[in-house]
Amino acid sequence: MNADKIPDIIIGRLPVYLRALQRMQEKGMKTTSSQELGEHVGISAAQIRKDISQFGEFGKQGTGYSIPFLIDKLREILKVNRMWDVVVVGVGDMGHALARYPGFLNRGFRVAMIFDVDSSKVGQKVGEFMVEDSSKLVERVRNAKIKMAMVTVPAAAAQEVADKLVQAGVKAILNYAPTSINVPNHVHVQYIDPSTHLQRMTYYLE
Amino acid sequence: MNADKIPDIIIGRLPVYLRALQRMQEKGMKTTSSQELGEHVGISAAQIRKDISQFGEFGKQGTGYSIPFLIDKLREILKVNRMWDVVVVGVGDMGHALARYPGFLNRGFRVAMIFDVDSSKVGQKVGEFMVEDSSKLVERVRNAKIKMAMVTVPAAAAQEVADKLVQAGVKAILNYAPTSINVPNHVHVQYIDPSTHLQRMTYYLE
Question: How do beta strands A125-126 and A59-60 pair?
Fold first, then answer.
């Protein structure tokens, strides 16, 4: 297996498979087929088999996939068979929601620190966290060796925050600010912008 | 132009171009080039030219694109040269954040109603909205002819909510619940799940 050669589009589907398998496991299921998994995630059975076979032979002809086994394998491939600390920058409504979001822990993530530039917010409690001053971000994040961040600041502040995060050694940024950010090649960025998602659908509406 | 033939991957990039152009306009810029736009969004100039040329000749060799003209065209193509009402279902932290999110209005969207199944939340004010009872959802959404929804309920409730929305005539669902949902072919779904986005990046981390 040569990880570098697997297209990112396939990597992007693995978390969706993993999520569906975890839901199946919660429901007490032990095995599944590419057909059944496909119905859950809206992807063809052939595509799922092809995607998963990139990483090895994880299923058996006739008996399908062992759910706990495939979960373990996908968690290993995606490197979420460990816990990743994530820092949240920007404590508006969205930052609040993320700091208190219960859906990270069983997916491999733990919010570790939250920052805001607004001195009236610094020191406030959000969930179990004390909001820290953004001026301390680079030092704090670097010392804690945190590699992941979620950015929920206004668009105009996003690039400056991204620059600080890169300086602090962060390697993966999930950007909620409604703007593109520029980072060095070795830093990964994903975007969440509800308006962008909605606009992708209105194109198809009457 | 035959809209049906344009790949969805291209449609998915148009909102990103539009967002960058709107940011440029806010900064007072009047014209741009595919090169400059590409630097903003992290996509090659050639790709941008190719994507945009699917819809017509909107730029001029040598002088580039008029920003207000290209904004108008993209808004027209994406059908956000009008305002779309959107309903929010589920008033947890994320539902709160979306109901109060200021980033919809200049992108073509307006939250119109919010619903929750929890009777202790019904009647509460969130932003400028009164939380309504989910039992009224089908009737209310159908009567108001709302075609778009954002779902921020727990995973276990997502399918039932999606079914109700489809029944009410909704044609586009932005699903924040961390699970896939099944809808008829004529209904569009986009997913926002921060854990899925984060897992897509951990794959590449050491």
Answer: unpaired
